[in-house]
Structures are given as C-alpha cells and as structure tokens.
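Morning!

As promised:
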Amino acid sequence: MAKTGVQRRGILGGLVLLSIASGLYLGLVQAPPDAYQGELQRIMYLHVPSILTAYLSFLIVFVASCLFLWKRERRDDILAHSAAEIGVLFTGLTIIEGSIWGKSAWGVWWTWDARLTLTAMLFLIFIGYLMLRALIEDKMRAGICGAVLGILGFLDIPLIHLSVYWWRTLHQPPSVLRPDKAPWENVHPSMLLALSANMVAFLLLYFYLLSRRVRIAEMEDELEKTKLYGVT
Amino acid sequence: MRAWGFVFLTYGLVWSAILVYVLRLWRKYRRIKTELALYQREAHRNSSEERV
C-alpha cells in the first residue's frame, strides 16, 4: 500500500518534469513575442499560472478549513495547513513576477494599485496564518484558529479578481478568466498553447508538492505518536 | 535585449525558489523518515524485551 503511494508520487514527479520542460520550451521558444509588449510578455506564462495555482490552493484551504470546523478531523487540518504553505509560495512568486514585469512595463517595481495591494494583503494574511499555527502548541486549537483565519483570508480572492472592474486600476483586466469572452477569442492560439502548457505544469507541480507536504505532516503525527506511546 | 534580461531574471528566480522549496521538503521527509524508523525500532525492541 505504501509502495503504491511512493510509485504514484514517482509517476507524478516524472509528469511534472516533462510538463515543466514543455512549458519552458513553448513559453520561451515557440510562442511569438507580443505586438505591444515584445518578449516581456513571456513573463505572463509564469505570472498567470502562479496566481491561478495560488487561488486553487487557498480554495483548498477554505474547503478543508470548513470541513475541519464541522467534523474536527485531523486530515482536513493537515490538508488546509499544507495547502496554505504552498499557496503562500505561489502568491510570493506571483508578486515577484508582477514586480519585475511592472518595472519594465510601468517603470516601477511596485505601485499601490487595488489589485496589487489586495494580493499583498492575501500574502500577508496567509503568512500570518502560518505564524499563528507555529505559535500555538496545541494542535486542535491551532487547527481551529487557523481554519477561521483561512476562511476569512480566502474571502480576499473574489475582491482581488473583481478589483479591476470595481476600481480604476493600473493592472489590466483578465485575459483568460473573462465573463464576456472565451480565452481563445481573446488570446492568440500559439500564446494560449504556451499558457495552457504552463498552467498544466503548475497544476501538476502543485499536486506533487501538496502530496509530499501532506505525507510529511502525516509522518510527523506518526512520529509524535511513536515518541509518546511506542508502536501501536 | 533588455526585455530578455527581465524574462530570464523572472524565470530564474521562480524556478530557483521552487527548487529550494522542493529540496527543503525532501530533506524534511528524509529526516522524519530516519527518525521515525529509529523510534519504531527502539519501541519494537522495548516491547519484545517486556514480553521476555
């Protein structure tokens, strides 16, 4: 049974490497430069998948946190904690990518635009989530406090997504997740292919990282039990 | 050429950060696995000594 899990993670790891390689090739070589942004647009092949992966991660935090508050099962708490950690990584990467792109396109590393500010808030909320969990020793209490903060933190995501419609922002409206147009109507097929390949690579990478992170947390629990009670 | 510099900087930073995180997870996994095996061996020995 354990061997099957290891094999599954091995296969997933192989798929991750393959998809990253194809994403890099399509994003850096195959896709044409943008008519307005030129080569700089290639940053979007990382920027868009990063933030969408972060959104997915915090959605998992939200669902797992609700389940934990309802059923109080440790596995839901482990899933929420693991997803939050990886979500923070991808949000941090999104901010770095956006900042580098902004320096070249807007002339500044950072501006207090609504979407940027709300994304920074999301990052800080979940940094706070990880700190809170690290500070509380009792696992059940840490889980409950974390779940409440995780649910509240997730509510920032609809605000981030809609901020470009609600306020006059420097950040452009979405090109892929638009309510009025399908992605293929808005993005050139060769660019959409590169974006899709990178999206798949990020999703596979995300599930690989999540499975490893969850396994580590389970093993930590097992170790703690062994230390306390010996082999059961 | 300047745009490529920004592109490579971004790709370099992103994949390096992900690699560092993956390595950190691997190291933690190996450490816990070793520690768990050690404690389980010790607990088995203790329980068999108690039976004797």
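Helices of chain B lie at 2-51.

Hope this helps with the figure draft.
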